[in-house]
Amino acid sequence: MSGPEPVAPYMAVGLSTIVHGIGARRHITRNLDTIEDAIHAAVSTIGINMPVKLIALAEGALTGFTDEIFDLPHVRAARDLFIDIPGPETDRLAALARHYGTYLVVQCKARWPEIVPDRYFNVLFVISPDGEIVHRAAKNHVWCRERSCTPHDVYDRWVEVFGDGIDAFYPVLRTPDIGNIGTICCSDGEYPEAVRALALNGAEVVYRPSEAVPMTQAGPDPGGTWLLQNRAHAHFNSLYMVCPNVGPVYVTPDARHPYDIGGGHSHIVDHLGAVIGHTVSGANSFVAGIVDIEALRRFRVMNLNSNWLKDLRTELFRRMYDDPVHPANLWLDRDPTGHADVDEIYRANIGRLIDRGSYTPPAHASPGARYIPPPGDDDPATLLDRWADPDG
């Protein structure tokens, strides 16, 4: 019986682009202009050495972070700010994928109306060299200020549509020419289970865009805990990590100056945990590295040491997930609430971990941090009115 056709080594590229925050869907065009220029620049530079078969965008590259920063009302943001897949924005990206004959991996905030109307998800999707959307997944873990809905927030509906297996939450795209691709985003990668789920589902290359490196800096090491995590994911699961970081961000549509909230340090890590591509700057830059799927496959099926997945004792770990920590179905029957209310949900999660003995409270505890809204408009919805007005 013959095996799969060999996959030739190829170049993977991660783009870091300067981002304009959006206050209306039409503002996405400015970011698409930058992305298009970046793709032309990267392929013309890197493609002379080896075919570029995979181009990955950073988190926020299309839609920015205004919803998170300003605690915008979820339902209105879903209706007025974010995109449909497919739609005119993805059509423009598909034209670039066809032009260069490359896969394009994208993050954006998008509606998923066949799941739940008036919700938006942090979506990861892949466009094929034919310009077709061939993969779509949702971010499963969001940081405490992100407003996106997750599959777990509408768990019963998600399971009704997709089932409750690994593939429902961590799908993997199997391709004949670039290997098997899994997608997570930012906070997802702070949980070892996320990349392990993709690995068990067959992933060979994992896309994980963006992390606020200045907030997670681990001593003097470049890339901080973001790079640390991604090297560990690659090493523990014998797979490649493609990790472009967001460029400097214009926080609002009318901001005069961008702020480097990500801190740069995009990187690509090979299946042994070695950094094979790294760039310090995130300001309209790119990172590149050679992906050798055949070398990865040989390692996985021949190596008896440091090939950890092969001897995983699954029975030992099953019970530790029996008791839930974060509540499911939070936004299935009610609209997502604001930061202050969500903070209380997270505090209750900490309380559950204390009650079960996972956490031991300190002898002296300071009061917990509380959400402080940006100054100005009392109602965040008024910001959307101002930003959407071209003369505002």
Q: Kindly state the mean pLDDT as a whole number? A: 93
Span of the ends, CA to CA: 67 Å
Structural category is: alpha/beta
Strand content: 15-25%
Taking all Cα atoms into account, the compactness measure Rg is: 21 Å
Count helical runs.
11
Helix content: 25-40%
Q: Tally the beta strands.
A: 14
Question: Which helices and strands appear, and what pairs or packs with what?
Answer:
Elements: E1 10-16, E2 19-20, H1 28-46, E3 52-57, H2 66-69, H3 74-80, H4 88-100, E4 103-111, E5 120-127, E6 133-138, H5 155-162, H6 166-169, E7 172-174, E8 180-183, H7 192-200, E9 205-207, H8 224-237, E10 240-243, E11 249-250, E12 266-269, E13 275-279, E14 285-291, H9 293-302, H10 339-355, H11 380-388
Helix pairs in contact: 1-4
Describe the structure in your own words.
This protein is α/β, with parallel strands linked by helices and 392 residues long. The protein has helices at residues 28-46, 66-69, 74-80, 88-100, 155-162, 166-169, 192-200, 224-237, 293-302, 339-355, 380-388; strands at 10-16, 19-20, 52-57, 103-111, 120-127, 133-138, 172-174, 180-183, 205-207, 240-243, 249-250, 266-269, 275-279, 285-291. The strands form three sheets. Strands 6-5-4-3-1-14 form a six-stranded mixed sheet. Strands 7-8-9-10-12-13 form a six-stranded mixed sheet, with helices on one face. Helix 1 (28-46) packs parallel to helix 4 (88-100). The protein is globular and about 60 Å long. 44% of the residues are buried.
